[in-house]
Description:
Layout: H1 13-21, H2 29-35, E1 44-48, H3 55-70, E2 73-78, H4 81-91, E3 101-104, E4 120-124, H5 125-133, E5 142-147, H6 159-169, E6 174-179, H7 185-191, E7 194-198, E8 205-212, E9 215-218, E10 223-225, H8 231-239, E11 244-247, H9 251-265, H10 271-283, H11 288-298, E12 301-304, H12 310-321, E13 327-330, H13 333-336, E14 344-347, E15 351-354, E16 357-360, H14 363-370, E17 381-387, H15 393-401, H16 415-428, H17 434-441, H18 445-450, H19 454-469, E18 473-475, E19 481-483, H20 485-492, H21 497-512, H22 516-524, H23 539-548, H24 565-582, H25 587-593, H26 598-620, H27 626-641, H28 648-651, H29 658-666, H30 672-677, H31 680-684, H32 691-701, H33 706-717
Helix pairs in contact: 5-6, 9-11, 10-11, 16-19, 16-20, 21-22, 22-24, 23-24, 26-27, 32-33
The structure holds a DNA duplex (25 and 15 nucleotides).
Function: DNA-dependent ATPase and 3'-5' DNA helicase that may be involved in repair of stalled replication forks.
Keywords: ATP-binding, DNA damage, DNA repair, DNA-binding, Helicase, Hydrolase, Isomerase, Nucleotide-binding
Family: Belongs to the helicase family. Hel308 subfamily.
Amino acid sequence: MRVEELKSLGVDERVIRLIRERGIEELYPPQAEALKSGVLNGKNLILAIPTASGKTLVAEIVMINKILREGGKAVYLVPLKALAEEKYKEFKFWEKLGIRIAVTTGDYDSAEEWLGRYDIIIATSEKFDSLLRHKSPWIKDVKLIIADEVHLLGSYDRGATLEMILAHLRDKAQILGLSATIGNAEELAEWLNAELVVSEWRPVSLKRGVFHHGQLFWEDGSIEKFPSQWDSLVIDALKKDKQVLVFVNTRRSAEKEALLLGGKVQRFLSKPEERRLKQIADELESTPTNEKLKEALKKGVAFHHAGLGREERSIVEEAFREGLIKVITATPTLSAGVNLPAYRVIIRDTKRYSNFGWSDIPVLEIQQMMGRAGRPKYDKEGQAIIIAKTEKPEDLMKRYIFGKPENLFSMLSNEASFRSQILALITNFGVKNFRELIEFLEKTFYYHQRKNLEALEGKAKDIVYFLLENEFIDIDLNDQFMPLPFGIRTSQLYLDPLTAKKFKDAFEKLETNPNPLGVFHLLASTPDMASLRIRRKEQEDILDYAYEMESYLYQNIPYWEDYKFEKFLGEVKTAKLLLDWINEVPEARILETYDIDTGDLYRILELADWLMYSLIELYKLSSPKKEILEFLKQLHLRVKYGVREELLELTSLPMIGRKRARALYNAGFKSIEDIVKAKPSELLKVEGIGVGILEKLYQHFGVELPKVKAKKKQEEER
DNA sequence: ATGCCTATTGTGCAGAGTGCTACTG
DNA sequence: CTGCACAATAGGCAT
């Protein structure tokens, strides 16, 4: 279908003009089909088509057109923060029409009114759920919800959130669900009373195959011969001047394969490429993992997993897009994350370790990895190849290439999500009694799918009892629910009620024995913290530590036979790490002693920051003691900045974190006053303080020093 | 026969990723 | 279940 024909479907002229300005004249068949489905007239739609086949454009046309014609807001839900950022950049294009676009993820809060000024709001499901709980006034203006990757409804730990959002809004706003190909798309569409458009069409054709001992069995039946090792597939692609993406199932494998492949990739690099890569590698900070990354980078290869810091990840992604990096070995971070296609995708592993032992990776996920093959503007086709090791190649072919992806199942019954969702329904969404609760549950996909609420009712009852018992809610003589402040706040803070209960139970000990380790262990022991796991070899050391510090902890040390024992040690380890952090142990040493990666450290710190905040908020509700509150607030700041008490004044300044604050302090600038009084030239001698930083500081103080400007010029000239 | 080094076999361990607050500019 | 690190054992060689 030609873009002009959109006019006959009622699309605004301005939208059509801008699309053509982008150089798009012809819509892809599934796009056309989707737009003809009635979605432009307000009908709900589930669009199940492969990644990179133009879902976003459909969403854009529907959104913009709706806003131009009817006003109101559109909310675009994504599963990942990184994706929110990506979409924001894409949608910014429409600002030309006066459309205002905002992103809101956990990074900066905003239940607040400012979002009311925007037309398109991009959010993660959790963030939007949280906004719903805060009853943001603009929610009533939301006329359209777009759920990207709506198949994540079936994800064990995060699916329930998305399901509840859709259950809340399915009568109030138009819904457009963008999905990967799933087994039971019809069922999902039925639930949402939506039209369904399914297609396998891709703008770049995809050729799939299975590799086994030097034989590559393509899906069309043809067989290609290669040297017996699978890495020959990588070399082969490089000879064709193409890039490769290799998916593996552990971080360690990703690193190992990257270094191994590096030796074979290096000779394909041009001199300038080699120089650029070396330059990029040299700029990276030095940590154990980064050393490996640097080594690989110099050879034109990189690994990509959640242990990498944000900085490293985006450097790798960028360099791959530029074509500098020829091969990336990755864990699933890349299969679901940002869009990073390659000519050839190799899937080395089809099994993965989970909490329940080893299991086959779902068809849906493997197909998403395979979907990464083929760069729309550069390649005529993409290739996805699964490596068979012990498995029979024909089995893999049957399961992953010709097989149907799994059905989607409601994950509302997952206890942790259900607990938090029921609390929210009662405290934030005005559900007044058990009958109303059940009525609401009848709107869910869970009910649609099973037509039987008995199991869910039982669970709901248990949870309601739990909430009553622990004073999240109360109940009056007519069996009407009455939200209590503790419950309302727990729900708004987006805490697992179990976490909140743990906090509350610890208030007494907190008051009699306030100390950082005790608090950190409390945080670490909640279900909302991703505590470290303990290695066999560390067990003894950590246990010794726990005994040594027993008097500081708010919980007893369990017996070693106790199933909680290992978990407990992991929590102590996490608490110990946080203690090191606020005592200014350098990052590199923390990474080494706890044998973790940058990404893991940041994750723990981020969670600790949030939980510290939440702990304070809940403590405030309990007739708090002033000195305890002060202690907690100070500890929160120390966690946030990773510093001892004495640096807190300095870290309150912009651009001053733990490193610079320490450097300033040691150089004798111990307070803000010291800095204001100091000569700029003196400050510049301190490590980590340059002209740029100094300018920011003076700007903050509200003074401008001509001397600094002069200095800057000097430096620029150099 | 003894001591030392290397190759081979055995044993034990560990293993993906992710979101959620609110302040401020 | 698989790959890896490290330990235990066996084997080879010089003395």
